[in-house]
Amino acid sequence: MPENSQLKAGTEPRLVHEKGLEARIASIVEPVIVDLGFDLVRVRITGQHGCTVQIMAEAPDGTMSIEGCETVSRALSPVLDVEDPIDSEYFLEVSSPGVDRPLVRVRDLVAWSGHEAKLELSVPIDGRRRYRGVLDGVEGEDLKLLLLDAPKDSDPNVRLPLGDLSDAKLVMTDKLMELALNAQSSDPADVVDATDADTHQ
User: Fold this and answer.
1) Would 60 be classed as within a structural domain?
2) I want to staple 23 with a disulfide (CB 3.0 to 4.6 A). Which of 18, 131, 137, 169 is the partner?
3) Is 141 within 8 Å of 189 (Cβ atoms)?
4) 185 or 96: whose pLDDT is higher?
5) Do 132 and 166 belong to one domain?
6) Which pTM value belongs to this model?
7) Beta partners for 128?
8) Distance CA 104, CA 61 (A)
9) Which residue stretches of the chain are H helix?
10) pLDDT, tens digit, for every residue of 18-33?
11) pLDDT tens-digit map of 165-184
């Protein structure tokens, strides 16, 4: 699995951000997560178990163990209780990004070059917002992408402005699954779907 062992938590901002209540929660939890040596990946609120606040986090090298999830969860619980961003009972879930992970930083787009991804832009290019293709690295302020649905006799290579990304995530492929399984077998501490959960009123 791609590694960024020289990076320090909190040094690279996210390209993709939440909106509304999710953005408020992200602003509350991110400083706490960074202080613990991890990076926030994403905050999402779902209707699971009535209301679930899902928080994805990882170490700067892209790994996240069950122990790491537990550490983050224990630190966030009292902070969220004090800030009280949700006025009803909710279920707090802290997890790693998983295999078909969101791509939220430039380092993600670079590290997963050669893998398939789905992307969405906040500002369309020639009327198009959604793209699917193979990541081909970052150059300047652009993400390079090899389109999988390019019309015949057209150039499949496109450039998408990094500043316009509103969503990006890896697509589950045999290549990606094989890589994840190999990483798990070689390093048991690199838990792909580590999760810790807690209920708040």
Assistant:
1) yes
2) 18
3) no
4) 96
5) yes
6) 0.87
7) 125
8) 14
9) 20-35, 66-83, 106-111, 174-186
10) 999 999 999 999 999 9
11) 999 999 999 999 888 888 76
Q: The domain containing residue 115 runs over which residues?
A: 106-171
- Clarify whether residues 77 and 117 are in a common domain: no
Is 9:71 a contact under the CB 8 Å cutoff? Answer: no
Number of domains in the chain: 2
Residue 9 lies in a domain: no
For residue 120, what are the β-bridge partners?
Answer: 130, 167
**How large is the angle between the packed helices 66-83 and 20-35, nearest 10 degrees?**
120
The CATH number given to whatever domain includes residue 56 is 3.30.300.70
Distances (CA, A) of 184 to 143, 181, 191: 29, 5, 7
Residue 81 sits at the vertex; the CA angle it makes with 77 and 87, to the nearest 5 degrees, is 125
Closest CA to 133 of 147, 120, 119: 147
CATH of the domain at 161: 2.30.30.180
Look at strands 90-95 and 52-58 and give their pairing.
parallel
Find the DSSP H helices in 36-152. 66-83, 106-111
Amino acid at 182: N
